[in-house]
Amino acid sequence: MIxxxxxxxxxxxxxxxxxxxxxxxxxxxxxxxxxxxxxxEVRILASSLRxxxxxxxYSLKVDExxxxxxxxxxxxxxxxxxxxxxxxxxxxxxxxxxQFLSEAYPDQKFFPAVNTTFFGGAVSxxxxxxxxxxxxxxxxxxxxxxxxxxxxxxxxxxxxxGGSNKGKCEISKDVNCIWDMIVKKKIEQxxxxxxxNFMPAKDWRTARDGGPRTSRREELIQ
Amino acid sequence: MxxxxxxxxxxxxxxxxxxxxxxxAGSMRLNYPTNIKILQVxxxxxxxxxxxxxxxxxxxxxxxxxxxxxxxxxxxxGNLKTRRKVEYVKKTLSELGIEPERVEMYNLSSxxxxxxxxxxNEFGKRIKDLGPSPLRIKQAA
Lengths: 222, 141
Hints:
The complex is a heterodimer of chains A (about 220) and B (about 140). Chain A has about 220 residues and is an alpha/beta fold. Chain A is built from seven helices and nine strands, in the order E-H-E-H-H-E-H-E-H-E-E-E-H-E-E-H. Chain A folds into two domains: about 1-120, 3-Layer(aba) Sandwich (Rossmann fold); about 135-200, no CATH class. In chain A, the strands form three sheets. Chain A has a four-stranded parallel sheet, sandwiched between helices. The longest helix of chain A has 18 residues, at about 40-55. Helices cover about 45% and strands about 15% of the residues of chain B. Chain B has helices at about 20-25, 50-55, 80-95, 115-130, 135-140, and strands at about 10-15, 35-40, 60-65, 105. The interface between A and B is medium-sized, with 15 and 18 residues.
């Protein structure tokens, strides 16, 4: 899923400064699963903003809404009749949400309430880790299910580098060296020889280096 | 005005401990402030961040959650989970410039009637010392 973190309250308060009628729109997709922009979080943010307003002594109306997803026009359309009733709209979806909303309703002002961080999963309750870099050319199968593109600090395809120290990466003691893990697994499974195959330079054109990407599925296009 | 301040306090009490302790405190004829409004919950794990925030938003001067002693939760770890939620709310209030001490988590057993009264008195005094919630002050003005 796409993982995100909520922006600090002060940053969100700055965004909506001077506006007294706000709508917060959550998303039932990834941000609900990573507990940052679902129904619960929309309610918490709305209540926090109302508390801040009451404390400062000004009136702030904050409405709450959660869409099935904010990355599909059919759901974005569901707020068509009410979206212009507000001074501004805060989206708690990933970076896609405020953009889809802005494109659909160019006259309204949309603010992002979260910082979208990475593609990852929950390794335990409350802890998410990056697993995919969305590079566009998956190579996980060469590395026994571990992706060095997303999980090596240098995205090395022929590792480890000299910065690997006792299973940790040189950038931080909290970061595992994925190459250490790959080598250990290859040894365990008696397939260390796989690593003698030199991996040629990756074609980064399928990643962000090739510019913004589009995926076309001809059989689905109507 | 200062002397007339009677705090509005909400207490979320677990059915298995704090609520029973409140009963016991009553049976023991122990005194505790009358302005504490007790809400019974089946486990403090039922209390969510939004419940605590809404209480503050709607004008409570203080809110506390009273659950079982750590390790004694009837549902294993509801009290431990809610302790973290209380910490989250404290952090949120700090970010908003409101005293985090207005929200607290307590642990006690159903046999601790006197402790219930003590907590109620202690928290009541704390909120009295802090004064009315800044939300109420602005509303009154």
